Amino acid sequence: MNIAIIGYGKMGREVEKAAKSRGINVASTIDPTESSASHREISEESMRNADVCIDFTAPNAVLGNIQKISKFKKNVVVGTTGWDGSINEARSIVKKSGIGLVYASNFSIGVNIFFRIVENAAKMMNKLDDYDVYGYELHHSKKIDSPSGTAKTIGDILVKNIRRKSKLLFAMAEGKISPNELHFASIRAGSIPGTHVVGFDSSADTIELKHEARSREGFAAGALMAAQWIKGKKGFYTIDNMMESIIGGRQDV
Ligand SMILES: NC(=O)c1ccc[n+]([C@@H]2O[C@H](COP(=O)([O-])OP(=O)(O)OC[C@H]3O[C@@H](n4cnc5c(N)ncnc54)[C@H](OP(=O)(O)O)[C@@H]3O)[C@@H](O)[C@H]2O)c1
After folding, report:
1. Nearest CA among 75, 78, 65, 59 for reference residue 12
2. Distance between CA atoms of residues 68 and 36, nearest Å
């Protein structure tokens, strides 16, 4: 497989490293400002030898990139986060052009297993009113979006499965929170690649579930797995679809 890497920043370089170690050919690296990238823009020339594109750029760049990629009929893996408001537009570009796209706010396979563990825990906690629910996430100080896309996904899983929690509070709590609010805090510091914690707290004890990325390696490995998976497919997919095909559907708790 030949890939084009769009966005030659921290993740783009990590994907390149992971691709080389797996014998996957990097046909081009595209970045408007990184002088070591092979190309400045998505063009006939930079797309020519690519089977699948992998985008790790910036929230305001994603939609334009998908539009350009679709003109060259290339499938794409989108790892960039913070563009949720444009997802429907992306869906319609994908449908109209007949390309394949897979998106994940977090391509780490471990995190996606974590999502399922959180979902099962939430289903159990739905039946146990004594436990309050909270979350927090930590990322490096250069991260652009806050809360992380992963935190939003975890928050959505919790409110979907715990009836007494109907509102996510990502901002600082101003005074007392309401019983239906679920507080999910974001901390930005140093070089932390990404830590997400979900807690259940009763008067007797606390249960915490934690996923801690050790490096960006897991994101890159998952994105490459997604590139293999999306090759030859048409339509808009999320990593949930990919996980289902790898580990099967959800189990009832
Ligand atoms: N889904 C996941 O598993 C996962 C994991 C980690 C990170 N992420 C997300 O991936 C994104 C990138 O993260 P990062 O740490 O690699 O950021 P980064 O180091 O800032 O790299 C992003 C690179 O993309 C470039 N870029 C911006 N617009 C572009 C465009 N239209 N075409 C090509 N390149 C463009 C940027 O150039 P400039 O500096 O000139 O803007 C920068 O060099 C973020 O949204 C982050 O949250 C996702």
Report:
1. 78
2. 22
What does pTM read for this prediction? 0.87
Ramachandran sector of residue 89 (left: φ over 0; alpha: ψ -120 to 50; beta: rest): alpha
* Positions marked active-site: 139, 143
Q: Give a yes or no: residue 9 inside a domain.
A: yes
Burial of 192 (0-12, 13-18, 19+ CB in 10 A): middle
The binding-site residues of ligand 1, defined as CB within 6 angstroms of any ligand atom, are: 6-12, 30-34, 56-58, 61, 65, 79-82, 104-107, 145, 219
| pLDDT tens digit sequence for 186-237 | 999 999 999 999 999 999 999 999 999 998 999 999 999 999 999 999 999 9
pLDDT in tens, 3-55: 999 999 999 999 999 999 999 999 999 999 999 999 999 999 999 999 999 99
Is residue 14 located within the same domain as residue 47? Answer: yes
E strands of 52-96, at which residues?
52-55, 75-78
Residue numbers of the domain that contains 82: 2-107+216-247
**9 and 103 belong to one structural domain:** yes
What whole-number distance in Å separates Cα of residue 184 and Cα of residue 197?
9
The Å distance, Cα 217 to ligand 1 centre, comes to: 15
- Residues 116 and 103 occupy one common structural domain: no
Which amino acid makes up residue 103? Y
Q: Per the domain annotation, does 253 fall within a domain?
A: no
**How many domains does the chain contain in total?**
2
